[in-house]
Design a protein that fits this description.
It is an enzyme of class 3 (hydrolase). Residues 149-160 have a biased composition (Low complexity). It is a lipid-anchor; GPI-anchor. Its EC number is 3.1.3.1. Homodimer. The chain has a two-stranded antiparallel ribbon. A two-stranded parallel sheet has the order 3-4. Strands 5-10 form a two-stranded antiparallel ribbon. Helix 3 runs parallel beside helix 6 (138-149) and helix 4 (117-123) packs antiparallel against helix 5 (127-134). It contains 8 helices and 10 strands. Helices cover 21% and strands 14% of the residues. It folds into 3 domains: 1-89, no CATH class; 107-113 and 132-165 and 244-327; 169-239, no CATH class. The protein is globular and about 70 Å long. The longest helix has 12 residues, at 91-102. By secondary structure, it is an alpha/beta fold.
């Protein structure tokens, strides 16, 4: 589920929301129709949806395969989502629906959830939209855990990983919460050495560079969704930072995340936790400790046999990996 319909439709095709498109596939294949034809031939229980109404009508109990493409290009920013004429579900809604469908598989599932528009907004120097897309991010995380634990009468806390792949070049004012875009306040508006206001978040580089003197911003300026934060270096797109970033984990195999790790270490932990790939025959991986006959009984490792799940948040791009594997 997500956006990008035009990448699956041929050139010169009528999009149900955008109308006539001329930036579709150069090979003129209609991959949406090919997927529909394939699932029909397999006599599968499937649905293809492209707007909020059809998405909400999907019954997880009678659907095994779901493709949802809600925009011809990128999904809307969270702050603009409710204004979309066709309507599109939130990240939390899509995550919940996916888990409801995938949880029916007795072998478990692997689910990747990404909210990449956070990163897009930062590259545009647009902190307001980036922060609006960041605010909802813990909600899908909490709902993952709720969805994964609620079907069983008793289960241990689901293992969760939160990590960042990169930071952004964003020096900030530590005395003011960055979750509230606007002007810095310390007993009234704070002024810089040029006796002008400044925002809670600025960028080290990006499109917000200004020629000449800085403007004296108002709160209305600074909280506008389209406002581009001031930057020190003029480039067309803000860049990532270079420092180490954090990773957080709890639950099964969470102890394997500690100190400093290279990023390629993360998928090895995921594979080890679920006993797949190179770790399929390992007797000490988390999933091998699960007992199918007692699906709600925690093992000595504290792992409930109901699920092994991992969640990964990649920097300013919200990328969530949920891994649930049943023996």
């Amino acid at each position: 589920m997500g956006g990008g319909r035009r990448s699956l439709l041929p050139n010169n095709f009528t999009d149900p929301e955008a109308g006539w498109i001329v930036s579709g596939r150069k090979d003129n294949r209609n991959l949406i129709q090919e997927w529909i034809d394939q699932k029909t031939a397999e006599n599968a229980k499937f649905q293809y949806v492209w707007n909020l109404t059809s998405f909400e009508a999907v019954n997880p109990d009678t659907t095994d395969y779901l493709m949802g493409l809600f925009e011809p290009n990128h999904m809307q920013y969270e702050a603009e989502r409710l204004k979309d004429k066709a309507g599109e579900p939130s990240l939390a809604q899509m995550t919940k629906k996916a888990i409801q469908i995938l949880s029916k598989n007795p072998k478990g599932f692997f689910l990747l959830v990404e909210g990449g528009r956070i990163d897009h907004a930062h590259h545009e120097g647009n902190a307001a939209n980036a922060l609006h897309d960041t605010w909802p991010s813990p909600r899908p995380c909490r709902r993952h855990e709720t969805c994964l634990t609620s079907p069983t009468p008793s289960s241990s806390p689901q293992p969760t990983i939160r990590m960042s792949s990169h930071s952004q070049a964003t020096p900030n004012e530590a005395t003011t919460s960055l979750l509230v875009p606007g002007l810095v306040k310390t007993d009234g508006l704070s002024l810089a050495k040029d006796n002008k206001t400044y925002t809670t978040l600025v960028y080290g580089n990006g499109p917000g560079y200004l020629e000449g003197p800085r403007p004296n911003l108002t709160q209305e300026d600074a909280t506008n969704l389209l406002y581009k934060q001031q930057s020190a270096v003029p480039i067309s797109s803000e860049t990532h930072g270079g420092e180490d970033v954090a990773i957080y984990a709890h639950g099964a195999m969470a102890h394997l995340f500690h100190g400093v790790h290279e990023q390629h270490y993360i998928p090895h932990v995921m594979a080890y936790a679920s006993c797949v790939g190179d770790y399929a025959d390992d007797n000490d991986c988390a999933a091998s400790l699960l007992t199918p006959s007692t699906p709600s009984t925690p093992t000595t490792s504290g792992v409930s046999s109901s699920a092994v799940s991992l969640l990964v948040i990649l920097g300013q791009t919200l990328a969530t990996v949920i891994l649930k594997y049943l023996c």
